[in-house]
Design a protein that fits this description.
Layout lengths: L14 H7 L21 H11 L5 E4 L6 H8 L3 E6 L2 H10 L5 H16 L11 H5 L12 H11 L8 H19 L8 H27 L11 E4 L9 H4 L6 E4 L13 E3 L3 E3 L1 H6 L7 H4 L10 H17 L5 E7 L3 H14 L2 E4 L9 E5 L15 E10 L1
Parallel strand pairs: 1-2, 1-4, 2-3, 4-7
Antiparallel strand pairs: 5-6, 7-10, 8-10, 9-10
Helix pairs in contact: 1-2, 2-3, 4-8, 5-8, 5-9, 7-8, 8-9, 13-14
């Protein structure tokens, strides 16, 4: 193996990264538990990679920012975080998770939530969101078993304007989004209104704890190491090299991301009601628009022949990433495959065509880092013998 194919970092220092790669703990800490975004990677992995490959003040780019794990860790560690996503729901979640709250904000949100919970009475007439309803954003949540949660959300959202500041309103919507997901997504039994009220208060306490921890980290950093707010862009990674909002920060030191997985069904933009029906209700709660169908968020239809659209889009996106990178940029991605036997070689060939060459950790001699994901089964053709799935961590530099 050529010396240029090896990442120059002490073998001793990569132990924390390896622990992060194989971490199995539930996603938690800081603001990471605000929302369960599909296919999130571990904050331990993001934290270790950012510490290992960057220093305070460096730019960390996530061109498929999803649940904002990279952005949160980058900001908390004093780096400049830039996140892109075609999903406007992702951009809302990224903004909510990286918002610094003051003591005044926390007091106002605590008071608002307790008053809101006390006023969740199904006998009270709710203000119906006519435009959202006409555009289908309440689809499949008006049934006999779900209408109470839908109405409770309407009542709660009707009180958002009682808050004074945009950052407070964003947190309140995130609280309702998290609790709505708990109540409706992939549930077989929808909770009662009383259970929903109680969960709102439980989630409030957990989210404020994370917000305090995150905000304190940001405020307590030495001003010279304190970045501005993250750059969150609702756009594709394709042609990102033409975007002045990205180029003005110079080449990123680290690209840390998890792109859509080839051939793998991941529902980024819907909740599943009773495991069968889908609803775009999270967009209504977050007050953002749903861009398109599933294939829009996943680089193409997972059932398309040879996944041609997926691989063409991946090559185009990473070609743009290569154009904003320089020789010092390390591109780290975690990805899974429905059938790695042919998709991984094709994926690596596309990376090479995009202008990237694969590199490896010291002493790994071209061995890649695979991790098993317990209790997560992709809708794929092939699984491990124990029914689990696998992800791989890939390292690249500009060729």
């Amino acid at each position: 193996m050529k010396e240029s194919d090896t990442i120059r970092v002490s073998a001793r220092r990569i132990e924390e990264l390896l622990r992060g790669v194989h971490a199995l703990e539930p996603v938690s800490g800081l603001t990471h538990s605000y929302y369960k975004y599909p296919a999130r990677f571990s904050p331990h992995f993001a934290n270790a990679a950012i510490k290992l490959f960057t220093k305070p003040g460096d730019v960390v780019l996530d061109p498929f920012s999803g649940g904002a794990t990279t952005l949160v860790e980058a900001q908390a560690l004093g780096r400049i975080g830039i996140g892109l996503d075609v999903n406007e729901l992702s951009c809302f979640i990224s903004a909510a998770k990286t918002t610094v709250l003051s003591d005044h904000d926390i007091a106002a949100l605590t008071s608002w939530t307790h008053a809101m919970v006390s006023n969740l009475n199904l006998r009270v007439k709710a203000r119906r969101p006519k435009t959202w309803i006409e555009n289908g954003y309440q689809r499949n949540i008006n049934g006999v078993r779900t209408w109470r949660i839908r109405k409770a959300l309407e009542l709660a959202l009707g009180r958002i304007d009682l808050l004074d500041h945009a950052r407070q309103k964003r947190f309140a919507r995130a609280l309702l989004l998290r609790t709505g997901q708990w109540a409706l997504d992939c549930r077989t039994n929808v909770p009662t209104l009383e259970e929903f009220r109680n969960q709102l208060l439980i989630n409030l306490e957990a989210m404020l704890k994370g917000a305090k921890e995150y905000s304190a980290l940001i405020r307590n950093r030495d001003p010279i190491d304190r970045p501005g707010g993250p750059i969150i862009l609702h756009r594709s990674a394709e042609a990102l090299e033409t975007d002045p909002r990205i180029r003005r920060h110079g080449p990123p030191r680290l690209v840390l991301t998890s792109p859509p997985y080839p051939g793998v069904h991941v529902l980024y933009h819907r909740w599943q009601i009773f495991g069968r029906k889908e609803t775009p209700a999270p967009y209504w709660i977050a007050n953002v628009l749903d861009g398109n169908g599933l294939s829009y968020y996943t680089f193409g239809d997972r059932k398309a022949p040879e996944l041609r659209k997926y691989f063409e889009t991946a090559q185009s996106a990473f070609g743009s990433i290569a154009k904003v990178a320089d020789d010092q940029t390390l591109i780290v991605q975690m990805v899974a495959f429905s059938d790695a036997s042919w998709q991984l070689p094709e994926y690596l060939e596309r990376m090479q065509s995009a202008g990237l060459r694969e590199v490896f950790l010291p002493n790994h001699e071209r061995r890649r880092l695979w991790r098993k994901i317990p209790h997560r089964k992709w809708y794929t053709e092939k699984l491990e013998n124990d029914g689990t799935s696998r992800e791989v961590v890939l390292f690249h530099r500009r060729d």
